[in-house]
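Preliminary data (for renewal application), nickel (II) ion complex.
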Amino acid sequence: MTYPIYVYGHPVLRKVARDIERDFPDLDTLIADMFETMYQSEGLGLAAPQIGKSIRLFVIDGKPLGDDYPDMKDFKQAFINPQVMERKGDRVPMNEGCLSIPGIHEEVDRESEVRIQYYDQEWNFHDEVYKGYKARVVLHEYDHLDGVLFTDRLYPLRRRLLRGKLNDIGKGRFEADYRTVLPNGR
Ligand code: NI
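Predicted structure:
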């Protein structure tokens, strides 16, 4: 099944999400449904708060970028209880979008390298270093678990210019070809 996507202005996107336990109910189903939701809405990544669940879990599949970024082709992973250990490298700008912020794409500065620890779907522990586009997507999704959205990382002037558009999203004035949940719960 697929979930609707919670959009900008909904408080669940601003919460610091909590770690989950190994006995978390129906985790395999949840992860499968998150991948399905992400594919259907044509996202590269999806974090649990975006489907209204304030838990530390996100999924990524970089396959759609495979032609332009070959190392993304086989980058499919669920990240459970991730912990960013280190951010490295120069901050570089890259265009980002977010399923929770439909219609807005902006250049965001982020570090080019990240070291992250997490558990996969089988609860195997990983300690990985990602660079380039992988680091970009991981850091974007990881932000969601801390209640941070990419628009928070824009320069203040740019953010101010977007304020009207962001408010519009919260009021349901946007186009998206996937189901959504507005801040008022509709
Ligand atoms: Ni996002």
